[in-house]
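Q: Predict the assembly, please.
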Amino acid sequence: MQDITRRRLLWSIPFATAAVAGGGFLAMLSGLRKGNFDPREINIPVINKPIPPFSLIGQPPSAGFNQQELQRQTKPILINFFASWCIPCLTEMGVLQQLSSHIDIWGIAYKDKPDAVSGFLERNGNPYQKIGQDPEGNIGIEWGLSGVPESFLIMPGGIIKWHYPKPLSVASTQILLSLLQ
Amino acid sequence: MLAFGIDSPDEMLKNTQQEQRAQHLGSQLRCLVCQNESIEDSSADLAKDLRKVVRQRIVAGDTDSQVMEWMVDHYGNFIRLKPPFTFTTALLWFMPVLALGIGCIIAFVTLRKRKHIEAEALSKEEQKRLSELMKE
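A: Predicted assembly structure:
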């Protein structure tokens, strides 16, 4: 190789590295703005895994539910962990209402009090077919919860098909609905 | 002794040996919502809940690796502050060796080139100029 070519090639290495890194950062930043990249998103390994063993007492007037009952369902169920004290949960209530005409949603009130949950549902509407209580948050841990709200799509037989660790948006419900077809 | 973020002494196990195991395990587990703190260091709610799970499992008779397995099973490898060696983390683990290797190659090439230049004999013209200079 010619000396001059080699020198040029060596010179171009730092510039190429900077260009590649810059491109990567630009993609991250635009993803952050568009909402398809979130560095804080926690992806737990639950997809295509069976639901964990659990049993919940009901939030009156709803009866509670457990692992066996969820496994027995013949249509998909959306499990939604929420809490009356959680502001992002409030923001997804509208989306959940709309979604409830397409899929049955079972709510799990996470670290909450029955009275506070009743008040929350009276004010914001109730999209849930059933509501269970997880006052200590133990069931949440079994599901790999890192906060509220979080949603899990459960297929008949009790297999987790989809998990969304953030408030549901219109865009994310479209992904969910496409999975139901 | 390290200072840990345990919120209240009630959280600690009475059995000191078990408590030490729990603290050692907890210091290797990431508090997922605080990004880079261990669950022993963090006072986040999730960290507190996970500390409780570690202690419950230890009391129930789990070994350290069984507790770790439970955590990875539920929360993924991200919960381990020290990433395991897998296909996706291979580059991460090999990087120090790789960087050292690349450095060695660069150093070797440059040094050899330098020696090569030094060893080159002076041309006739240069020789003449040198002797002229020496005379002055």
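Residues 25 and 31 of chain A are 10 Å apart (CA to CA). Chain A touches chain B at residues 40, 42-45, 111, 137, 140-142, 144, 146-147 (CB under 8 Å).
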